[in-house]
Amino acid sequence: MERIVYVNGDYVPEVDAKVSVFDRGFLMADGVYEVTSVLDGKLIDFDGHAKRLVRSLRELEMKAPCSEADLLKIHRELVKRNAVTEGLVYLQVTRGVADRDFAYPKDARSTLVMFTQTKTLIDNPVAKTGIKVISIDDIRWGRRDIKTVQLLYPSMGKMMAKAAGADDAWMVEDGKVTEGTSNNAYIVKNGKIVTRHLSNEILHGITRAAVLRVAKEAGIAFEERAFTIEEAKAADEAFFTSASAFVMPVVEIDKTPVGAGVPGPVTLRLREVYLEEARKAAV
Ligand code: PMP
């Protein structure tokens, strides 16, 4: 089945889903995005993603393409038209079409593109085995709190990980882990979760916020502070979170097994309670 894609107000077959070569998203990576997962045909953490989108747009002085209520309608319509029961909705807003210039155009109309991907998320086999990460230098720009489409370094990081026989990379700056290439990083020591505090140095993960909320409710202690790769290697457990991976065990860092080298009990419990809560709250 060919997908139906949303482009600036229209639902079109994917072959007809096109934007201009003058779109600033294409020319300058002048755009932001969100990924919302779908379970049981419903949107997970939609409100968080919609709010973060508004924040990303505001930080870049970009116009919102529509209201949050309209965004929800479009998400639901796409999920319905593409019969997605499990997978994700990708959304991208760019500053729009303008003659190429570094300065922001004054009157460009923002571009809004959305599409779905059907994917197995819950029974993702790596959630049972865990994944291997390598550490790499974090050489990204200083506004990682804005979810922009400039994803070349994270892509390079994944390729470096693959070349080293691993699955993903955790990025390190000034001796401390910032985050994964497309996820937030955590360790567990003596039953307590440690994850980096929020700042401009990391993306404020929507799954991170939900997982910490759920941890609090479940009586699992956590601390928000930076940690080193050495501390991570010596931890009992490690994991990462993202909208499409939920809570994902990390079992090896730079070839060193973490704890017993298998997904740990705190990680697995968090995945379970997060998914339970997220499904209950899905819209
Ligand atoms: N950090 C980075 C760099 C990311 O790209 C992502 C996911 N896009 C995350 C963290 C996780 O954020 P979320 O839980 O909102 O998917």
List its salient traits.
D-amino Acid Aminotransferase, Chain A, domain 2; D-amino Acid Aminotransferase, Chain A, domain 1; 8 helices; globular; 2 domains; binds 4'-deoxy-4'-aminopyridoxal-5'-phosphate; 9-stranded mixed beta sheet
What does this structure look like?
The protein is an alpha+beta fold and 283 residues long. It has two domains: 4-118, Aminotransferase class 4, branched-chain amino acid transferase, N-terminal domain (D-amino Acid Aminotransferase, Chain A, domain 1, 2-Layer Sandwich), CATH 3.30.470.10; 126-281, D-amino Acid Aminotransferase, subunit A, domain 2 (D-amino Acid Aminotransferase, Chain A, domain 2, Alpha-Beta Barrel), CATH 3.20.10.10. It is built from eight helices and 15 strands. It has helices at 24-28, 46-59, 68-81, 126-129, 152-163, 206-217, 229-233, 265-281, and strands at 4-7, 10-13, 31-39, 42-43, 87-94, 111-118, 131-137, 168-173, 176-180, 184-189, 192-195, 222-224, 237-242, 246-253, 256-257. The strands form two sheets. Strands 7, 8, 9, 10, 11, 12, 13, 14 and 15 form a nine-stranded mixed β-sheet that branches. A six-stranded antiparallel β-sheet has the order 2-1-6-5-3-4. Strand 1 (4-7) and strand 2 form a beta hairpin. Helix 6 crosses helix 8 (265-281). It starts with a strand and ends with a helix. The mean pLDDT is 97. The site of 4'-deoxy-4'-aminopyridoxal-5'-phosphate has 13 residues, from helix 6 and strand 13. 4'-deoxy-4'-aminopyridoxal-5'-phosphate (PMP) is lined by residues 35, 179, 182-184, 203, 205-208, 241-243.
Summarize this entry quickly.
This protein is an alpha+beta fold. The protein is built from eight helices and 15 strands.
